[in-house]
Amino acid sequence: MKSLLLGICMIIVLALPPMRELLESVMIVHMLVQLPLLIIFGWIIGKYLLQRFPGFFANWNGNGIPGIIIVIFVTTYWMIPRAVDEALTYPAVELFKFISLPIVGILLADSWKKILLIGRSFVFLNYLSMFGLMAWLYIDAPIQICNNYLVAEQKALGWGFVIITAAMVLFTLQYVFIDHSENLPSE
Amino acid sequence: MSKDIAYHYEDKSRNKLVAAYLLTGGLVIGLMMVFGILMLLNQGGILNLSPATFYQFLTIHGTGMIGAAALAAAGLMWYFLGQYVQLSKKIFVWNLVLFIIAVVMVIVGIFSFEYASAWTFLYPLPALSANAWGTIGALLYLVGMLVLGTGFLLLYIDTGRAIIRKYGSLTKGLGWDILFGKKDVKDAPPKAVIASTMVTIVNTTAIIAGAIVLIMNIINVINPSFTFDPLLAKNLTYAFGHVFANAIIYMAVIVVYELLPKYANRPWGVSKLFLVAWTCSTIFTLVIYTHHMLMDPVMPRWMLIMGQVLSYANGLPVLVVTAYGALMVVYKSGIKWDMASRLAYLSMFGWVIGVVPAIIDATIVVNHVMHNTKWVPGHFHMYMGVGAVVMLFSFMYYLAKVDSDVQDTMLDKIGFFCYAIAMFSISIQFLVSGAISTPRRWATHFPEWMGPAQFGAIAGVFAVIGTLIFVIHFIRYMKNRGTAGSDMYEKKLA
Amino acid sequence: MKRNWRNHLATIISIVLGLLIIYFGTDGLHAFTAESARTYRLMQEQPAFPEVTLEDSKERVYTLSEFEGKYVFLTFIYTACTDVCPVLELNLKEVYDQLPEKYIGEEIVFLSVSFDPDRDDPETLETYRIAFGSDGETWRMARIPDKEELQALLEEFGVIVIPDGNGGFAHNSAFYFVDREGYLIEVMDYQQTEKAAEKVLQVLESELEG
To answer: Which residues bind Cu cation (chain C) (predicted)?
Structure first.
């Protein structure tokens, strides 16, 4: 119950106009702070919902695949430059952002465990290449991709993605090189 | 007892899947040879294809050969690796399904929408075709490749997961704990596991690079005002293409490791040198794709020099320990020569001699002159045609032997010589063309360049006949699958 | 199989839902950036050129009715711009040069509109005009002194102008093609001048023949 309230409160705080103004005025903060925060608070809410309605998730998201598909599509949508741009221009898109991303968090909380190591690795590696591509796109694009943000901000975002990609690569390397004999993944 | 039966049953259904991989691979390889012959006939002045058709053939030939050989090699690797670690059958099936979807997309893209930018799909060619093909053709091809990559990525995640689960980590799969003296060499992982670990590492990396460059091309095709740095694109393309193509032989060579000791009835142990060799090749394979960029003067010089030096070193460690080991195992062992062992030996021979032209080409001074000639196809036809693909055929005969009572016939023997001589002639023909400076990737040739091409086309016909004989033998096996009985499994070889 | 039919159904629903999000989010895979979405929408809507008063480099003051009955091919610029505007103008000239002379001035007029009326007075525009080799008649450079009118036009045509704080502007760039009645009929990629010229010619000729 506490996590439900916490999650909802935090999302409401994020939705307050001054908070939105603060987070959305800079592109990199918008993409790499606000959007992930919405997912994280969704995750926190998800923890509660999973306990409250275990039957629903077991029935409709038994193997985690339906959930992860929604997660992939919605996050892909939010990686399209236009989506971020239009969130600033159209209230409906902004509203969709505040609804869809917490849902992503909720589904992720349920699906991430269910899709097993193989599914997690697959999703992880795909996001790794996707973020690498986003880095390249935003740094290298000679045109202004978003109408609401300047080219310099675009480049900053690109470098943000470089850092994320690099971190993911390092994580992968340590994962495959460090011995797992002691604590075998549960499957 | 009941456990034995269950295992046997499981084993049979696994063999069925592996056979499906090999059959798909074998059939596609045979079909792609036909396109190869048509291209040589055209270059030899015997056929008169339009240039557009020629480049479509070039695209399907390259894509199909690499894809089919990689698929069959993955089936081979999965068969042997599965004897040591617990692999997922579901994912193995998914990879095949995705492969077939990808093949259909690529074929429709090439033949119905006239996409023809070669299997290297070098940016920005997919989008800039001077109207030779449209957006749909390019998208079908690129998305098809992406689907293919998805299947393989799933497969390698599974092999990596299984190896980590059994051995602790990928480095342990490569035997590093033995190299660092923490474990005795007699506790080393089996050779099949070492090779599979290497391939898992390099191909996962390659596919991630490939996904980036493919999606980037897709974005560029859909919206041409998104442009990217072409040099980075080229680097990523070859980091994907070179590694993926190169890894085929490292998957296929497992058959040599598994087959020869059984046939010779002698152990072929893992030595420290063997482990060092595989570790070296893992690293080199990842970094030497730069030898494809030797003609790009804008590349940092150190990268090019590294490309040259490491290209020399790339295949050599594994090749040397494998060829030497193979000789030692067989030497005075009274080995029984049949199709499988004969093909395995031919493949080692092809690999050894195939390396020579490659090393010549990787030398920067030579590369500037040779890399755009047919010398290069000469090198990879030898390496693939007489090396890697022969390993796949060897495995096809091996599987037929251990899992059925189908016998080798005189026809198979004829097929062997037919194929060996033909494939060797095709390679030589390319090398000769290269030596007389025939450019590569040209649809039409001057008369003085036509001789070798005509010779190659004729040889190609025999290569197809040889391949057909191999595939027919394999189909006969598939019809009689399981007739060997599990107790015969090892006995039959002795 | 029976036990997890809900899971299968959910899988299918989630795929369909996901595709719908992507499909509608990109106008049916047409527009992946707000800019392409904007041009796509503009071409669907075909807004009318609003009532504005222009002042050109020759200090003439007129409304759009000056060009009544002619096609207008326009761009939005500011002269202090150092990056995209010069390219935009050079490319506009390329389109201008590719059209047959008989149509220029008779059937179609070229117009560069400044969205920086404070600095781009007629004198500055005159210098700019000479620099780019426009004749000032069939290809005019003008500002809209009334800021409200300017804003209305920019909004109607979806031109987004953000001051960058250093006296410059970040803005989106394209060719705008307005028909004889003053309706925007086409927004074109300013980097593809040949395509743009081809399109204009096609419109002119199909109408004159028909």
So the answer is: 81, 85, 171
